[in-house]
Amino acid sequence: VKAAVFASGTGSNFQAMLDESDLACEIILLICDRPEAAVIEKARQHQIPVYQFDPKQYATKEAYERELVTVLKKARVQWIFLAGYMRIVGSYLLHAYQGKIVNIHPSLLPDFPGKDAITQAFAAKVDKTGVTIHFIDEGIDTGPIIAQQTVDMYPDDTIRSLTKRIQQVEHKLYPKIIKQLVQNEGEL
Ligand code: GRF
């Protein structure tokens, strides 16, 4: 089973997927919309092809998504895992990969959707936050939830220490859920 990862940033979740020896699928492509993103170097180190695109070069979201879908279909990609991809997936891509696009978000959705979820939770002084893995729909962090894991927040936490604790959970949870989804062909 072939999968693509969409990422725009550091790529620590991408790295966690590559480090998992038993993912039940093969990450064969990285799709990245930011040429300076550190995740690109991680793909290169693992000889994973990178498809880089610049959304500004296209008149519409549908125009670049049409091209992405052509690339994905040609590579026989069946699953898409978003890992710090900072764009909203549009209806063209959603329909081409219905039920096969998964995202990870660093909060217990529906709490703290959108950007800076960890900072939002920290500022709200919650005593628990966490990680959510969900299917994508047309909203921002609103699709059906697949799995959630709670992360405690302590009075002496800083954004940095909380981020670290959340990332540790992400790096274990995402590969585990990917494996389950792929093996169950998307059924939960
Ligand atoms: C993760 O916290 C993920 O939950 C969010 O974006 C971040 C990506 O981090 N969607 P990285 O690039 O995988 O290190």
TrEMBL record:
<keyword id="KW-0658">Purine biosynthesis</keyword>
<dbReference type="GO" id="GO:0005829">
    <property type="term" value="C:cytosol"/>
</dbReference>
<feature type="domain" description="Formyl transferase N-terminal">
    <location>
        <begin position="2"/>
        <end position="177"/>
    </location>
</feature>
<dbReference type="InterPro" id="IPR036477">
    <property type="entry name" value="Formyl_transf_N_sf"/>
</dbReference>
<comment type="function">
    <text>Catalyzes the transfer of a formyl group from 10-formyltetrahydrofolate to 5-phospho-ribosyl-glycinamide (GAR), producing 5-phospho-ribosyl-N-formylglycinamide (FGAR) and tetrahydrofolate.</text>
</comment>
<feature type="site" description="Raises pKa of active site His">
    <location>
        <position position="141"/>
    </location>
</feature>
<dbReference type="Pfam" id="PF00551">
    <property type="entry name" value="Formyl_trans_N"/>
</dbReference>
<feature type="binding site">
    <location>
        <position position="103"/>
    </location>
    <ligand>
        <name>(6R)-10-formyltetrahydrofolate</name>
    </ligand>
</feature>
<comment type="pathway">
    <text>Purine metabolism; IMP biosynthesis via de novo pathway; N(2)-formyl-N(1)-(5-phospho-D-ribosyl)glycinamide from N(1)-(5-phospho-D-ribosyl)glycinamide (10-formyl THF route): step 1/1.</text>
</comment>
<protein>
    <recommendedName>
        <fullName>Phosphoribosylglycinamide formyltransferase</fullName>
        <ecNumber>2.1.2.2</ecNumber>
    </recommendedName>
</protein>
<dbReference type="InterPro" id="IPR004607">
    <property type="entry name" value="GART"/>
</dbReference>
<dbReference type="GO" id="GO:0004644">
    <property type="term" value="F:phosphoribosylglycinamide formyltransferase activity"/>
</dbReference>
<feature type="binding site">
    <location>
        <begin position="86"/>
        <end position="89"/>
    </location>
    <ligand>
        <name>(6R)-10-formyltetrahydrofolate</name>
    </ligand>
</feature>
<feature type="active site" description="Proton donor">
    <location>
        <position position="105"/>
    </location>
</feature>
<comment type="similarity">
    <text>Belongs to the GART family.</text>
</comment>
<feature type="binding site">
    <location>
        <position position="61"/>
    </location>
    <ligand>
        <name>(6R)-10-formyltetrahydrofolate</name>
    </ligand>
</feature>
<feature type="binding site">
    <location>
        <begin position="11"/>
        <end position="13"/>
    </location>
    <ligand>
        <name>N(1)-(5-phospho-beta-D-ribosyl)glycinamide</name>
    </ligand>
</feature>
<dbReference type="InterPro" id="IPR002376">
    <property type="entry name" value="Formyl_transf_N"/>
</dbReference>
<dbReference type="GO" id="GO:0006189">
    <property type="term" value="P:'de novo' IMP biosynthetic process"/>
</dbReference>
<keyword id="KW-0808">Transferase</keyword>
